Amino acid sequence: MPTIRNAALTLVAWGWCAVVHAQAEPAGPTHVIVRPALGGFILGYDIDQAGTTGLLAEAVTLGDGNHDIAVETFDQATGKILHRVRVKRDTRNDYVVFGIFGKQRTGLVEFEHVSDLFVDKRVYWTMDPVDVNDFTGHWTPPLHKADHIITALAPNQGFDETVALGFKNNGSDFASYVFSTNVSANTFGPLYRLDDPVFDWSHSPVIAMDQVKRRAVIGSSDGCFGCSSRIGLVDLDTGTLLSFFGPGLGFLNGIAVDPNTGVACTTSEGDFSVEFYDLDKRLGFKVVLPGATSQAQSGSAVAVDPLHKLFLVGQPISSTAPSGSSIHVYDEKGHLVKSLDGFQLPSSPAFMALKPSERRGFVITAPNLDTLQGFRY
Predict the structure, then answer these.
(1) Dihedral (CA of 376, 209, 276, 348) sign
(2) What is the model's pLDDT at position 81?
């Protein structure tokens, strides 16, 4: 019969082996898969970097053209759906998850109301914090009319403030608009119109935030195959826009900024490259994605891990695997750290929700967009 001491040593040894096993888990896709409760396609998602919860919205298309829609939370460790926060049946409306924001870990969900064919009202619900599993308040941005479309909010977990990018879909104003916001407090900075046409919404600009310098960082291009990219820096106190040319060619598909170092990373469509910038010096350089030989192998979304000073770049058509998609991990000097193969990413940029403390994340899976794939990097 084992003694208490031997049993304790056995438990310690088992725990040590478990830690070693967890650390030795290979980088790449993991066994954790998230499937929405209704079996629909996913309309936005994120994970709580300081907790164990994830958030998603879904919709199931019905035979009459309407949808069953829902907002749900899930467990990051198992992928299991935890709560159905809201469910609406046989409706023309939908929910869209914008993400989880701020030090308060506040979930932000857009509700799009449709009376006929088009959205006629947008309501933004908050979940403060996200693991309360319920709507707790509203977010009331300065772009609030039915034809005002907010395209993105820069990820900002760990900071109070982020920036939003949007436009007015009225047929006459093609400019993009930027404003700062504390989602948890429902407060907003001034609404700034970007008068430089290179940043017009028709060019699909992308946005990030340098929280330390309080500036929005916007990437764009005129879109032609040989056109140089542009990086815009918007002072959130004055609205002043400073821009400089980047080394990438064609549309910019993704952008991220490490606020601790002032380094930005983008992906460009025309030259299947990844660009790295010193924002203070307004200088950048580019590297071609590993093994890439054509525009078909361009990078898409970019995510930042400021804890380990890494950028993750999605690549829908892999250049390092015979099939499928990849996520490439770079350090901030532009060195390739590793390539993660075995994904199925959509052709449009797919948000990578990261948990830097565990070097893990989730990304949506093509072609049906109805699952989230867990991965380790």
Answers:
(1) positive
(2) 98
Distances (CA, A) of 169 to 96, 124, 210, 334, 370: 19, 18, 27, 38, 29
Dihedral pair phi/psi, residue 298, rounded to 5°: -65, 155
Are 282 and 245 spatial neighbours (Cβ–Cβ below 8 Å)? no
Query: Within 10 A of 5 (CB to CB), how many other CB atoms are there?
Result: 8
Domains of the chain: residue spans and CATH: 32-139 (no CATH), 147-349+371-377 (2.130.10.10)
**Residues 79, 321: Cα–Cα separation, whole Å:** 26
Tens of pLDDT, residue by residue over 346-376, are 999 999 999 999 999 999 999 999 999 999 9
Which tokens is 356 given?
A: 């830097």
What does the alpha-carbon distance between residue 113 and residue 117 come to, in Å, rounded to a whole number? 10
What is residue 17's DSSP assignment?
A: H
Q: In angstroms, rounded to a whole number, what is the distance separating the alpha carbons of residues 47 and 207?
A: 20
Instruction: Find where tokens 């990097």 sit.
Output: 377
Residues in contact with 140: Cβ distance below 8 Å, sequence separation at least 6, in sequence order: 124, 186
Number of neighbours of residue 323 by Cβ within 10 angstroms:
9
Among 309, 325, 307, 308, which Cα is nearest to 317's? 325
pLDDT tens string 46-73:
999 999 999 999 999 999 999 999 999 9
> 355, 361 in Cβ contact below 8 A?
yes
For 25-44, letters b (16+ CB in 10 Å) and e give: eebbbbebebbbbbebbbbb
Contact 244, 206 (CB under 8 A): no
CA pair distance 255, 266, nearest whole angstrom: 4
Are 304 and 326 spatial neighbours (Cβ–Cβ below 8 Å)?
A: no
pLDDT of residue 226: 82
The DSSP bridge partners found for residue 84 are: 72
| Sites in the chain below the pLDDT cut of 50 | 1-22
Residue 88: count other Cβ atoms within 10 Å of its Cβ: 17
How far apart (Å, rounded) are the C-alpha atoms in residues 133 and 148? 28
Say which amino acid occupies 159. F
pTM of this structure: 0.92
- Helix (H) or strand (E) holding 279, with range, is none
